[in-house]
Prior knowledge:
By secondary structure, this protein is mainly α.
Amino acid sequence: MNKSPYLLDGRLSDVMAMIQVLALSEKTRRTEEGMTGELQGPPKSAANWIAVGLQHREFFRVKPEGPKPAHISLIARNAQEATQDEGGEQKRPLLSSDATAKLMQLAVDLHARQLQRSEAWRTTVIPIVIAVLAAVASIFSAFINITQKPQPVGFAGICNEARPLAAESPR
């Protein structure tokens, strides 16, 4: 069974950190070195930031290495219309704090949903296992009762028991 990337230790915090950097920084995209420098270290849940981006295509676009080094950007920011700065270079505007907060909330919701899905088996499997164990115990108990030799119990059995005779009374 494939484990959701959201369930990896530290993944949610890595995704949230990437969203903040790529949404609120002047630079629209970052290389691995740029992300590591901005976030002061590698991610906790993967070998590098590019790997995190590749596993979360719902938020990030990763451009593979070519003439330029591989880089990562935020899809929501790339969807905005580009503007030209004073140097004639095209830039994407920063995401608003509301849009950034919504993306971060979406990451939290996706994490919660994956966590809930990963634990859903407990609500069906555990009761089934308990029912099967109870059925096996009942069958085993019935088998034991059938195979044991029954002891005669009843009025005839009680009457045939040896009883001390009462002393005969004088006549």
